Amino acid sequence: MTQPPTEPERDRPEREFPTIMEQMGGVPGIVASSAPVLVFIIVNVVTSLQPALIAALAAGVAVAAWRLVRRQKLMPALSGLLGVGVAAFIAYRTGEARGFYLPGLLTSAAFGLAFLVSVLVRRPLAGVIWHGINGHGQAWRRDRRLVRAYTWASLLWVVVFASRVVVQGWLYDADEETWLGIARLAMGLPLFGLALLGTVLAVRRAHRSPLGA
Questions:
Q1: Is residue 45 part of a domain?
Q2: Between 114 and 139, where is the model more confident?
Q3: Whether 66 and 82 share a structural domain
Q4: Which of 114, 104, 150 lies closest to 9, judged by CA?
Q5: Does residue 122 form part of some domain?
Q6: pLDDT in tens, 119-165
Q7: How far apart are CA 52 and CA 45, in angstroms?
Q8: To the nearest 5 percent, what fractions of the chain are helix, strand and coil?
Q9: 3-state DSSP call for residue 143?
Q10: Do 153 and 130 belong together in one domain?
Q11: Is the pLDDT assigned to residue 84 strictly greater than 80?
Q12: Same domain as 206, residue 112
């Protein structure tokens, strides 16, 4: 029996955004991922480094447990807990609160460079990740509209990661621990949401544009 033709990939951009959000635990899961950093900032200001590290680890375990109880994806819960653990370890070994933010700073630098290189080699990482998460394969690379859209989206991610490196790197060198934590939060979810929204809009515009545009 002949199978009905599958829906063209270009006709379903609206369904991809919820799928990506589900992979990350939805909005509550994304917000909860900032809890360990917020707890660390508050406890470190009120008390000292060691209690702040213990509190941040406890918050990380609580977030992971909350995600597991809600039967959300296991990998985001474990990766989030691992990230908090690595940050706490570095801060403990260096004896400096700013060490807690070093892994995030290095990660931003690595991702920013990866997105930039992907644009230069004409394999925009925004498209690779977007379609990889949603299981749509990489056929989009034959569509010039989508390649162009994902190129602009990838450049937007480059700007996001570069701004984090510049601002937070300056605060790290200046040893402004409290402001570094505040910058980490302020440039976390808001910029992430902005870049994700920009990606969605760019892709939807590409899907609506005429063939050959």
A1: yes
A2: 114
A3: yes
A4: 150
A5: yes
A6: 999 999 998 888 877 666 778 888 888 899 999 999 999 999 999 99
A7: 9
A8: 80, 0, 20
A9: coil
A10: yes
A11: yes
A12: yes
Residue 100: name the closest of 53, 162, 147 by CA. Answer: 53
Tokens coding 124: 């925009």
Give the other-Cβ count within 10 Å of 43's Cβ. Answer: 20
Measured CA to CA, the distance from residue 189 to residue 67 in angstroms comes to: 18
**Distance of alpha carbon 132 from its chain centroid, rounded?**
15
**92 within 8 A of 75, measured Cβ to Cβ:** no
Q: Which two tokens stand for residue 77?
A: 């819960």
The domain tally of the chain equals 2
Tell me the pLDDT band of 1, cut-offs 50, 70 and 90. Answer: very low
pLDDT, one tens digit per residue, over 168-199 is 999 999 999 999 999 999 998 889 889 988 88
- Cβ contacts of 213 within 8 Å, gap of 6 or more: 145
Is residue 5 domain-resident? no
Q: Are 177 and 44 in contact (CB under 8 A)?
A: yes
Residue 6 inside a domain? The answer is no
145 vs 3 pLDDT, higher one: 145
Identify the residue whose tokens are 């994304």: 30
Q: Give the model's pLDDT for residue 180.
A: 94
Q: Report, as an integer, the average pLDDT of 69-87.
A: 80
Domain residues for the domain of 116 are: 97-213
Report how far residue 194's alpha carbon sits from residue 198's, in angstroms, rounded to the nearest whole number. 6
pLDDT (0 to 100) of residue 25: 57
